C-alpha cells in the first residue's frame, strides 16, 4: 500500500491471533497469582511468590522501586512493604485483558488495592484510615508463571491521600478511577478475533495521528492536524495519573493534559525500543512502554515546573475501551515521580524531609486522653 494512501500506517499493524481457551486460562492464572500475592497470609507469601513467578522474574515497578531481578528482590522491595503497610489489603480488578505480542502471551490488569494504611510506605506517612491505591500491570506469562512484569502503582496518589502534595495541583480532576462503564472489563469469555483486531487497530490509528504533530505551539490549527476528533467518542473519559488528573471529552483532554504536555515536550515521540505490550481483546486494548516515549523538557508549567532542557524517558501504559468505531474510555498510568526525578524534583526526598521529625499518634492520644 502506497504511503500516500496509508496515512495511519495500517499496513504495518500486526495483530497476533490467540487461542481463546488458552487466553482465558492465562487471564485466570494471572488473576490467581496476583490475588494470592495481594491477599494470602504473610507467612505464605514466599511460597506464593515461588508458585507464581519464575525464579529469575524481571519486575519493573514505578519509582522509587524501579527495576528488580528475581523473587527475593520482589518480595523485599515490593510485596512485603506493601502488604505490611496495608495489612488488610484486598485487590479489586476492574480490567483484565490478554493477547499475544512479540510471540509471547501477555495479560494486562488494572484496578485498586483497598485497605487500612497502617504503616508508612516508601516514606509516605500512614494515615491509619482506608486508602484506595490504583495499580496497572502488564505480565508476560510462560508455562503458568510470570516471567516479566511491569507494575504501575500510583504512589503519588497515595501521597495525596495522606495529605501531602509535593507539586502544583493537577489541572485535571483528582479522583478515583472508575471501572469501565460497561462493567465487563474482566474478560473471561471468548472474544471475536475480528473485533479484537479492529480495536487495537483503532488505537494504533490514533497513535499514528498523534505523530502528525509538527512541534509548533499547540494552537487550534496545530491540534487539528492530529485529527484526534476522528478517533475519540465525543464524551470520552480520560483517566490520568495523580499530578495530571481526569478529563472528559476532547476539549477537556486538550485543556487539562494535551496542550500542557505538548508545551512542555514539543519533541515527544516514540523510540526504537517500542512497546512491551500491544494487544486487543474484544472491545478492549492495552499498550505500554517502559522508556519508549522520549522527550526534551523545553517548555514550562507542567506540574508547575519551569523548563529544564533535560532529556526524559517516560514509563507509560494505556488501557482502552472502544465502541464500534471510536475510543470511549482511556486509563493512563504514567510514572510521574520518575518523570519529576528526571526534571530535578525528587518528590520522595522532599516527603522524607518533611515528615522525618514526626510520628503518628492514635485518636485516643489526642481525643480520649489528651493529657497522656
Secondary structure: elements and pairs:
Blueprint: H1 20-39, H2 45-52, E1 53-61, E2 66-69, H3 71-85, E3 90-101, E4 104-116, E5 130-142, E6 145-153, H4 155-161, H5 193-210, H6 220-224, E7 232-239, E8 246-248, H7 249-264, E9 269-270, E10 277-281, E11 284-296, E12 311-322, E13 327-331, H8 336-342, H9 347-355, H10 363-368
Parallel strand pairs: 1-6, 7-13
Antiparallel strand pairs: 1-2, 3-4, 4-5, 5-6, 7-8, 9-11, 10-11, 11-12, 12-13
Helix pairs in contact: 1-2, 2-3
How would you describe what is shown here?
This protein has 372 residues and is of the alpha+beta class. The protein folds into two domains: 20-161, Roll (Nuclear Transport Factor 2, Chain: A); 185-355, Nuclear Transport Factor 2, Chain: A (Roll), CATH 3.10.450. 30% of the residues lie in helices and 29% in strands. It has ten helices and 13 strands. The chain has helices spanning 20-39, 45-52, 71-85, 155-161, 193-210, 220-224, 249-264, 336-342, 347-355, 363-368, and strands spanning 53-61, 66-69, 90-101, 104-116, 130-142, 145-153, 232-239, 246-248, 269-270, 277-281, 284-296, 311-322, 327-331. The strands form two sheets. Strands 7, 8, 9, 10, 11, 12 and 13 form a seven-stranded mixed beta sheet that branches. A six-stranded mixed beta sheet has the order 2-1-6-5-4-3. Helix 1 (20-39) packs antiparallel against helix 2 (45-52) and helix 2 (45-52) crosses helix 3 (71-85). The protein is globular.
